[in-house]
Amino acid sequence: xxxxxxxxxxxxxxxxxxxxxxxxxxxxxxxxxxxxxxxxxxxxxxxxxxxxxxxxxxxxxxxxxxxxxxxxxxxxxxxxxxxxxxxxxxxxxxxxxxxxxxxxxxxxxxxxxxxxxxxxxxxxxxxxxxxxxxxxxxxxxxxxxxxxxxxxxxxxxxxxxxxxxxxxxxxxxxxxxxxxxxxxxxxxxxxxxxxxxxxxxxxxxxxxxxxxxxxxxxxxxxxxxxxxxxxxxxxxxxxxxxxxxxxxxxxxxxxxxxxxxxxxxxxxxxxxxxxxxxxxxxxxxxxxxxxxxxxxxxxxxxxxxxxxxxxxxxxxxxx
Amino acid sequence: xxxxxxxxxxxxxxxxxxxxxxxxxxxxxxxxxxxxxxxxxxxxxxxxxxxxxxxxxxxxxxxxxxxxxxxxxxxxxxxxxxxxxxxxxxxxxxxxxxxxxxxxxxxxxxxxxxxxxxxxxxxxxxxxxxxxxxxxxxxxxxxxxxxxxxxxxxxxxxxxxxxxxxxxxxxxxxxxxxxxxxxxxxxxxxxxxxxxxxxxxxxxxxxxxxxxxxxxxxxxxxxxxxxxxxxxxxxxxxxxxxxxxxxxxxxxxxxxxxxxxxxxxxxxxxxxxxxxxxxxxxxxxxxxxxxxxxxxxxxxxxxxxxxxxxxxxxxxxxxxxxxxxxxxxxxxxxxxxxxxxxxxxxxxxxxxxxxxxxxxxxxxxxxxxxxxxxxxxxxxxxxxxxxxxxxxxxxxxxxx
Lengths: 319, 400
Ligand SMILES: Cc1ncc(C[n+]2csc(CCOP(=O)(O)OP(=O)(O)O)c2C)c(N)n1
Ligand code: SF4
Ligand SMILES: [Mg+2]
Hints:
The complex is a heterodimer of chains A (319) and B (400). Chain A has one domain (3-313): Thiamin diphosphate (ThDP)-binding fold, Pyr/PP domains (Rossmann fold). In chain A, 36% of the residues lie in helices and 13% in strands. Chain A contains eleven helices and ten strands. In chain A, helix 1 crosses helix 7 (204-216) and helix 3 (83-99) packs parallel to helix 5. The longest helix of chain A is centred in the C-terminal third of the chain and has 24 residues, at 290-313. The relative contact order of chain A is 0.14. Chain B folds into two domains: 13-255, Rossmann fold, CATH 3.40.50; 262-395, Rossmann fold (3-Layer(aba) Sandwich), CATH 3.40.50. Helices cover 40% and strands 17% of the residues of chain B. In chain B, the strands form three sheets. In chain B, strands 3-2-4-5-7-6-12 form a seven-stranded mixed β-sheet, sandwiched between helices. A six-stranded mixed β-sheet of chain B has the order 9-11-10-13-14-15, with helices on both faces. A two-stranded antiparallel ribbon of chain B has the order 1-8. Chain B is globular and about 70 Å long. The relative contact order of chain B is 0.12. Classes of the chains: A alpha/beta (319), B alpha/beta (400). The interface between A and B is medium-sized, with 26 and 23 residues. Iron/sulfur cluster (SF4) is lined by residues 29-30, 33, 35-36, 58, 62, 145, 149, 229-232 of chain A.
């Protein structure tokens, strides 16, 4: 069966999951944290019938100071660089126990959550290995707040060009981050896995359905989730959702899916809002000149056009 | 333990967070390549270094690698290319670079690393102890422990001189306690740039990748050579000891602060001696003062040099003591004593007049170490010494 045909129960405003969240309130994320919002909505969509693996990072630290835990389903944290490998192991354990009749005979999604640092940098090798090995029930979620927030806002390879962080500071001879954001969804898609998608907490139903689809499709899935971080982006704490929406509307973070190699652009942005509307409320971009913004805008548009072309060209599954 | 004095007296001490002071020391040393990966509590060092590079105050390549394994790999590459190289890490980051540490030393590359000591997972914990340092005890690097901010700065500058000494050519770790030292604001004298340059000339070496003089680094060493290669490394490390002291002495001549491999504090006539490493020695000295005032014959010996172990200096420092209380900030799981105590007991085994010795383990994962701990320890080691009992380690400040 083609992955696109795999059925799952859709989340709508009417069927929005009720009942206790799998992520309990009382965690210790910062006020207005977009990352914990995205995490909570995703695990809400999954209910209690899955297992989670966290990489070290903000979401792990803020949900698990002993003797408390915010997780109501089975959860494990091992280290920073290996969430994908640990999740692959959990899946292997579940698979064999299920095969031997030691577990009920049904699929248990194993969902790994890692930050952009834990995904695009230190965890990339483990992720590539896990995707290539094609763990049947693996869903990998990158929560992308575009820097190492847990350790104090250091740059990662997912930090956008021009952003000032504590290890890519803007200074007399520096404009901040001097490299372009690594294209993680494309790297995941290059593994020819059945499902890759981007998602945003500003489009929460879309995001919740994407993780449901990711869990329903047999074979590994990769979700790249935009996770605004008021603390690290140096913006007002009420702006997380707004900035996530502007990121989509300015073409900075397009929403799309790759299902069996078929590209679907979920939100066409024919008339993008000016890039400055997105950048300016964020202190990390404060030092950029109009010229710098024009340079970034040019790149953002080119990347968006490239994606639109992919969606046009690969409109049928390719494997 | 020796007060700043001498030529640089005129230089004013400034209040500076120790992490930033270390970054400034790296700048003074004109490090050429910094490859590092953030981890608490090391972050302030590398953040300040990125700032210095971003502002053009330090002309260096800052390589923001994607993991510690790559940090140490890049340092090895940079040092092999002949550049003066610095990095810094802690705990989990150190464990991830462990494979490369062993290779850096056999390649004889003079990399300098500030290790901001933090407990190892698990449970995951970002606070201070020495379990990270002890986990790489045998990696072939020179290893020193700093007690104060000034010492951390001075050791950083001296480290490059020691490591790059053609008679040494070994990588070097400067250990400093996470938070309790790294994040404290201390009065620090930053040496004059010109004086540092005189003390530490630019790094030039023939031991590098060079088109004109091609070397192969990292060759295979089979059964016919492996033993000799390991012995050569051990001899290099052991043989570095007098050269380290010589650099300390040269430093004193220029900057007026004299360091020794092993420091002693009020050990004259001491019946009981505490043995410490790192910043808790400050607290221990205060406790020693108080006990001395109360008429107790107590002193302190602090290991500044950990690798190569200063065997003779240590023996001399504790000679005559009746009781030794050796303090560890890490455990050896499955063995009756901690790593420092184990080594010291082994060293003293052949002594005719061995002191009684007990191992005390404390301050794990950031657990506070107040002065009262040292008083308790002194009482306890005397008691055990008098009764002739010899047991396993004792935990101080543990919840039962
Ligand atoms: C091997 C290792 N290196 C470094 C660290 C320190 N560390 C913990 S979390 C973290 C950054 C996490 O960044 P990211 O993955 O983007 O997640 P965020 O906190 O931003 O959500 C770092 C550098 C570690 N725990 N282990
Ligand atoms: S630092 Fe950012 S990502 Fe981390 S908890 Fe705070 S707001 Fe959330
Ligand atoms: Mg992040």
